[in-house]
Amino acid sequence: MSDDDNSPISAREAKQLFAGLKSAPALVLAVSGGPDSVALMWLAARWRRSFSRAPRLLVVTVDHGLRPEAAREAREVKRLAAELGLPHRTLRWRGEKPKTGLPAAAREARYRLLAETARKAGASHVLTAHTRDDQAETLLMRMLRGSGLAGLSAMARLSTRDGVVLARPLLDVPKSQLVATLRRAKIGFADDPTNRDANFTRPRLRALLPQLAAEGGDARSLARLASRLARANAAVEVLADGAERFLRLRDRGDASQAAGRSFEASAFALLPEEVRLRLLLRAIDALGHEGPAELGKVETLLAALDRAIAADRPASRRAPANGRAILKQTLAGALISLAGGRIHIAPAPARRSKGR
Ligand SMILES: Nc1ncnc2c1ncn2[C@@H]1O[C@H](COP(=O)(O)OP(=O)(O)OP(=O)(O)O)[C@@H](O)[C@H]1O
Questions:
Q1: Are residues 203 and 272 in the same domain?
Q2: How far is the first Cα of the chain from the last one, in angstroms, to the nearest whole number?
Q3: What does 271-336 look like in DSSP terms, one character per residue?
Q4: What is the three-class DSSP state of 279?
Q5: Which residue in 113, 10, 15, 133 sits closest to 58, CA to CA?
Q6: Are residues 211 and 310 in the same domain?
Q7: In this structure, are 150 and 28 located in the same domain?
Q8: Distance (Å) from CA 116 to ligand 1 centroid
Q9: Residues 221, 297 within the same domain
Q10: Where is it found, in Gene Ontology cellular component terms (predicted)?
């Protein structure tokens, strides 16, 4: 990408941005009507026109039913899409709206609706218009929350959701270049006031960015930090894969895995802490029924397990499989226990209803 942050994106640059998508059957473009996603639509339409055979494009706007102007903005996107020769659909979020955590619930509903529509339309990808500035904000938000390495890797260029690839082709592009691209093309765009609403964390952090930039921490360097952390995170994931294989090999296939996963505690204890944590997280997320486990809670569980394994060593040498659990905890709908020198992770029994 050009070093000049205010230069419009050329057709050649756009070709590079969308390079990996040319052989997809169809792509859903997630377009809210704001400058970033309108630019995504305009760039994708121009890119599409330069080939005789290229993916079908379907523009989708989600109306969350939260702002009265949203319906008008969706119609505006439809009009612009029609000018570019692209089909457009508006999807409505109809479910119950929560009182707290509204942005997160809206985002969850949005991705669910987008993935559903892509599947039905035979599209392999959903494209969003996240920019380098969004990446920097995401990193900052997660730093302030004390996230682990996976969270600090921020957004991935490609990920999967409900069988559809979520692609962010503009993740290295500064927002200012997208605005410049639209100005050059004389295309208007909506201004979403919630982007500046100080009731939400992200706009408050966004307001801090110019001060950080003045200290050298601009979006470019924050996004670079996120991609370096993502690289380290990918390496640790490979180590965790290897550790899982190592533990399985030690079991020679004879460990009882009937209702979950089980690891030999003394072999588990030899692994680095970060790898032990990931193995627990993976097993709890796969077998629990209450959504992803919080990192802090898995850290507390691991500390308790480590203490129990250390305390159990002399006893387990005397009675290697006495079967009695010396630790038993539930977390995120999974039951974790230490018994007979092994760690077991299984789905937790359903909780008794409070009504009786
Ligand atoms: N109402 C919408 N309809 C369609 N696409 C949307 C809508 N809102 C957001 N998007 C897509 O998601 C991208 C990111 O939008 P935004 O930064 O507002 O999301 P967010 O709420 O911060 O959540 P996240 O960044 O996790 O997606 C947009 O560029 C656009 O591609």
A1: no
A2: 63
A3: S-HHHHHHHHHHHHHHH-SSSSPPHHHHHHHHHHHHHHHHHHHHHHHHSTT---EEEEEEETTEEE
A4: helix
A5: 113
A6: no
A7: yes
A8: 16
A9: no
A10: cytoplasm
**Tokens matching residue 266:** 């003394």
Q: Is the CB of 107 under 6 A from ligand 1?
A: yes
Mutate to test the pocket of ligand 1, among 37, 43, 86 (most ligand atoms within 8 A of CB): 37
Q: Which of 159, 149, 297 is nearest to 234 (CA)?
A: 149
Tokens representing 206?
């966004």
- Is 36 annotated in a binding site? The answer is yes
Q: What is the CATH number of the domain that holds 116?
A: 3.40.50.620
Q: Is residue 116 part of a domain?
A: yes
Question: Considering all CA atoms of the chain, what is the largest pairwise distance in Å, rounded to the nearest integer?
Answer: 80
The reply to whether 34 sits in an annotated binding site is: yes
The answer to whether residue 4 is domain-embedded is no
- Specify if 23 maps to a domain: yes
Q: Is 33 annotated as a binding residue?
A: yes
Q: Are residues 36 and 182 in the same domain?
A: yes
125 lines ligand 1 (CB under 6 A): no
Residue closest by Cα to atom 23 of ligand 1: 107
Does one domain contain both 221 and 299? no
Q: Please work out whether the CB of residue 316 comes within 6 Å of at least one atom of ligand 1.
A: no
Which residues of the chain are under the pLDDT cut of 70? Answer: 1-4, 192, 194, 253-258, 313-323, 352-356
pTM: 0.89
| Residue-range definition of the domain harbouring residue 86 | 11-229
Q: Binding residue per annotation — 256? A: no
**Number of compact structural domains in the chain:** 2
Do β-strands 158-161 and 164-167 pair in parallel, antiparallel, or remain unpaired? antiparallel
Probe residue for ligand 1, chosen from 32, 75, 80, 166 as the CB with the greatest number of ligand atoms within 8 Å: 32
330 bridge partner residues: 335
Q: Is 178 in the pocket of ligand 1 (CB under 6 A)?
A: no
